[in-house]
C-alpha cells in the first residue's frame, strides 16, 4: 500500500504570517499545504499579485511543499456577509466567478495540483431552479478557464449548500458533460456528517473523481470540524479506502476554527494521521447503509 500525502490547511493558521505558517507545516513533516486565498494569506486583490505569488511559489519549493488552492475565505468578497456572493446568489455571481478564475491563475503560477471551490448557500428568496441554472453556468465558465490553464478543479459538496453531497456533485458533473478536469474535493468530515453510506464506501464511490481531499473529524448531523479523536470517524479504514482508490493528491487537514493553537493542533494532527495510516487494514469492510437516526434520517446540520 502506497503512502498517502498529508497536508495542512492555512485556514487553520490565520493568526500566523503565511511564510511562518508554511515553515511550521514543513517542519512538522507535512507533504503539502491547502492554501486559502484570503486577506492574510496571498490576498488576490492586493497590488503586486504576480510578484507575491512568485515569492510564495519559491518558498513552497524551498520547503518541499506541494500545494492546492482553496477558495472558501469567509469575508474576502464581502466584508459583511460570510461567503457571499456565491455562484447561486441573486446578485454578485459574476464577482464570485471572476474570483474563481483568478484563483485558477494563481494556482497555475504556484504550480498547484488543484483549485477547490463550492456552490454556496441558496438563500430562501432564490428559486431552486434558478439557483441550479446559475451554478451550472458559473461552473461552465470556471471550467473553461481551467481547461485553458490545464488546472484540475475540485468541486466540494458542503453541508447546507446547494450541492451538499456526492450525489449532487455527480448530477452537476453530468450536466456539465463530465469535463475531464472537473473533479471532486471530498471532505471526510462532511461524509460522516450527512452521507447515507459508511465513510469508506463513500470514498470508493468518489474515487474516480477525486482531485482533492480534506480530512477532519466530525459527528453525524453536526457540521463542526473537530480534531481527530473528538468525533465519530474510524480513520484507518478511511485511509485504506483512499489508498485503494489510487488517489495520489494531498489529504489536507481542515480545521478552520483552530488557529488559536495552530502549531500544537498541526503537530497532534500529523501524529494522529501517521498512526492511523500505520494501522489501516488491507481490506476495507462495507457495512451498508448507515442511518443517522432510527428512521434512517439525520438531524439538521449547522454551517460553520
TrEMBL record:
State the name under which the record lists this protein. Xylose isomerase
Name residues in a coiled coil.
none
**Keyword Oxidoreductase on this protein?**
no
Q: Which keywords has UniProt assigned to this entry?
A: Isomerase
Q: Name one Pfam family in it.
A: AP_endonuc_2
Superkingdom of origin: Bacteria
Could you tell me which residue ranges the Xylose isomerase-like TIM barrel domain spans?
A: 23-275
**Quick one: where's region Disordered?**
281-304
List GO molecular-function terms, semicolon-separated. isomerase activity
